[in-house]
Fold this sequence. Notes:
This protein is of the alpha/beta class and 274 residues long. The chain is built from 8 helices and 9 strands.
Amino acid sequence: MRLDVxxxxxxxxxxxxxxxxxxxxxxxxxxxxxxxxxxxxxxRHHTVDDTPYGGGPGMVMKPEPWGExxxxxxxxxxxxxxPRILVPTPSGSPFTQELAEELAAAPWLVxxxxxxxxxxxxxxxxxxxxxxxxxxxxxxxxxxxxxxxxAPVLVMVEAIARLLxxxxxxxxxxxxxxFAPGAMANLLEGPVYTKPPEWRGxxxxxxxxxxxxxxxxxxxxxxxxxxxxxxxxxxxxxxPPDALDKHDRATLEHLxxxxxxxxxxxxxxxxxxx
Length: 274
Ligand code: 6SD
């Protein structure tokens, strides 16, 4: 997979040289190219921003450097190859595990992290109206506001890269990831433990030392259900009934959850202060 990143802070993308993504690059599984947007400026000060039309605080990224940068990057692909352009923005559609899976199957992604108040709208519209050269996606990694799109690029690349064939050394199946699209139920992972068997007075849940694989799997499932019910109740409420076995149902009932007529579960009533 090829990844291009156009940014005014190439050094912000240094983490792409490290750990999982860095190793995937070293092994030839990922071809990452980071470009300095200022390379496509022509004035002495390498200006990439200007004041906003209509007034208001902050500055807006000028369209010309972005247009030249993206034209150059898009023209550098193999003939007929059109990338996905991913524009991080708090006003984008949510970045989910499902989208990560879809993007992991794409041959070429181009990221355009902004700074200041964002990029002149005409840049996004220009490429959105040219499906022959690229498909544009404005994406949000979460409902909070960052100072720029570089951190979202690091987040998205890590989520995508770990899904590429051969990147995770261990053959651990992504089907078991908490938010894997194919998973019957999306449950949060329960706790994990390693040696030593006692640490600062705390032991290990006995079932994990039992060697009984059936009991261990059941305990892990109960831990996942309990944690999900407490922290992400909406994930339980939207779980299709056929994704819950008899024991799952008993566990949820033990936690005060009740099944409706359609078999889906509803949380315990909340106490209201008088
Ligand atoms: C100025 C940006 C680009 C500023 C962002 C994305 C999300 N989910 N939160 N904040 C963001 C992206 C903020 O350029």
